């Protein structure tokens, strides 16, 4: 039987872990790239964990080169890269952010998904199977928010990156599907941390608490189920940014 392989960054927690579990349960092979690992996924025979700190581009490159030494298109039904991992910190006015923290944020949230997308498309360019790159974005790509300049700007960067790479793929003889996915609000470490911040320099905290109290924050497994449906659907006039 042919196998679908899905590479997911940040599969150790939150939406990424829930996505990995949803895809494993329907028979896909999942490769998780993160620093930690989820006990539920690692117990699965079709899950492979790659220990990668996405703030190090050297580690990102090495992990992809190693992975593609063993991966071939033989027996594959499809291959997908889901750039899910992102940083939220530093959550502070930009003048209060240390240079190292700014650089680390940008590496994890913009440089790593960019480099992973580049390596993935390069290494699979000749593979005769459907290829998909999905990048997790956020409604904050279009909402300027105090203390969230890095997060909002990183997501806006990713949305434009996706739109440009889609244009490139249109010119390719073997185009890959390239999409951004806005998962909406999910109850994860990232969401809980943002909601817990009560200081005046972070007015979004109050809005996130209101959304939580109004029941608008979904369980990661429900968000993951919707993302899997979006990955499976493909409409002729598909938009670059899909919302769950
Ligand atoms: N939760 C929401 O409400 C929400 C809303 C809109 C968009 N999103 C987006 O959805 C995606 C997932 O969010 P989430 O809420 O599930 O986040 P999360 O709970 O904070 O999990 C983040 C994941 O990213 C990984 N990660 C972070 N820094 C890393 C690093 N330096 N190297 C390797 N992996 C790293 C973490 O793994 P390790 O710590 O094990 O390395 C973890 O698996 C993000 O892109 C986020 O921006 C989330």
Automatic annotation (TrEMBL):
Q: Which PROSITE patterns match?
A: ADH_SHORT
Q: Which residues form the Ketoreductase domain?
A: 4-188
Q: Which UniProt keywords apply?
A: Cytoplasm, NADP, Oxidoreductase
Indicate where this protein is primarily found. cytoplasm
For this protein, the record's InterPro entries field holds: Biopterin_syn/organic_redct, KR_dom, NAD(P)-bd_dom_sf, Sc_DH/Rdtase_CS, SDR_fam
Q: Where found in the cell?
A: Cytoplasm
Short name of one Pfam family for this protein? adh_short
Annotated protein name in UniProt: SDR family NAD(P)-dependent oxidoreductase
What the record says about family reads: Belongs to the short-chain dehydrogenases/reductases (SDR) family.
Q: What domain of life?
A: Bacteria
């Amino acid at each position: 039987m042919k196998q679908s392989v899905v590479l997911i960054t940040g599969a150790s927690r939150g939406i990424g872990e829930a996505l990995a579990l949803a895809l494993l349960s329907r028979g896909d092979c999942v490769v998780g790239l993160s620093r930690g690992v989820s006990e539920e996924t690692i117990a699965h025979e079709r899950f492979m964990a790659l220990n990668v700190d996405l703030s190090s581009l050297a580690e990102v490159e090495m992990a992809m080169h190693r992975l593609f030494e063993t991966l071939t298109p033989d027996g594959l039904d499809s291959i997908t890269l889901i750039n899910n991992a992102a940083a939220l910190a530093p959550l502070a006015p930009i003048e209060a952010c240390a240079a190292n923290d700014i650089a680390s944020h940008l590496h994890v949230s913009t440089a790593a998904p960019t480099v992973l997308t580049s390596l993935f498309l390069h290494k699979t360019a000749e593979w005769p199977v459907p290829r998909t790159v999905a990048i997790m974005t956020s409604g904050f790509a279009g909402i300027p928010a105090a203390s969230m300049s890095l997060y909002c700007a990183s997501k806006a960067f990713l949305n434009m990156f996706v739109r440009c790479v889609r244009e490139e793929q249109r010119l390719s003889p073997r185009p890959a599907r390239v999409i951004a996915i806005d998962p909406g609000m999910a109850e994860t470490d990232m969401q809980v941390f943002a909601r817990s911040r009560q200081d005046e320099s972070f007015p979004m905290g109050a809005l996130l608490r209101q959304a939580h109290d109004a029941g608008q924050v979904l369980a990661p497994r429900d968000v993951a189920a919707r993302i899997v449906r979006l990955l499976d659907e493909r409409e002729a006039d598909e938009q670059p940014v899909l919302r769950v």
